[in-house]
Amino acid sequence: MLGRRQLREKAMQAIYAWKMAGEDSDQRAIEKNMLKGVDEIYDLYIYLLNLLNFQKTIGEHKIELARNKNFPTEKDLNPNLKFVENPIFRILNENEELNEYTSKNKQLSWDLLDTYPHAIFKEIIGSEEFDAYMNDPKNSFDADKAFIMDIYEKFIAPNESLHDWLEEKNLHWADDLHIGNSMVMTTLKSFVPKSTGKIKLFKVYKDDEDREFIIDLFRKTIRHSDETRSRIEEKATNWELDRIAVLDLVLMQMALTEFHYFPNIPPKVTMNEYIELSKVFSTEKSKIFVNGILDRSLKELKGV
Q1: What is the pTM (predicted TM-score) of this model?
Q2: Residues 163/174, Cβ–Cβ less than 8 Å
Q3: Domain residues of the chain, as ranges?
């Protein structure tokens, strides 16, 4: 599921789009697109799980081709099956939710004719990690899981060609790949030896409250935009707002909106969340500025 920070990130993208389109643009359309983008993270998550699981299919296909050669070697006839029999693949293969959702959304499955899974498989089997795993005589579920997590983190998550392909498939996915990768890794981490096909995958929203949060954050930030802009201007000594990057301004306005209009969220939590976002989306110089404005705003709120 998405954490609140990730929901803030999606709201930030939508508010930024609203500002860039002009503040008289259709908020409802942008909000609808924001929620659609959040929902499509689940599709990306399923697509990535299927990509990982498809490595077993490719491995089995390669083994079958080798066995059916005109002159198979002893190795071809008696291959090392440790990779294709990794129990993590079994758990994914048996997962009812993954199978049911994929059967209803065929575009989220992979085919032996697809280039990207094969390119990833080639990198995996050519790696030192693969050799060490296949030649390790010891067998344990923890080691099997660690290996799968390792190859996902090294050969799938950072794959630039895959990133380009995902962007072509869905414009939202390029920005959300890090979220999808995080969900996959968390899912793999949750598997235990007794995991069955009934183990639940992660949802996008933890509950209805999370969905309401992102909608409220989007709407209230826009509704109070003039007010929060004035508050920032008051504290931006020797800075003109026109010189501040739009994304930095959005981050500060969102934080101030939470300070004043989300009483159930501790201001310190809000402060920490937007500091973390600024580390990702702001330059080093503007990050210091954003943090300074938020720190002053928090002190003012506390009457310090």
Answers
A1: 0.87
A2: yes
A3: 4-190, 224-302
Tens digits of residue pLDDT in 164-179: 999 899 988 988 999 9
pLDDT digits (tens, 9 = 90+) for 66-95: 999 999 999 999 999 999 999 999 999 999
Q: Residue type at 5?
A: R
Give the chain's radius of gyration (CA, Å): 24
224-302 adopts what CATH topology?
N-utilizing Substance Protein B Homolog; Chain A (1.10.940)
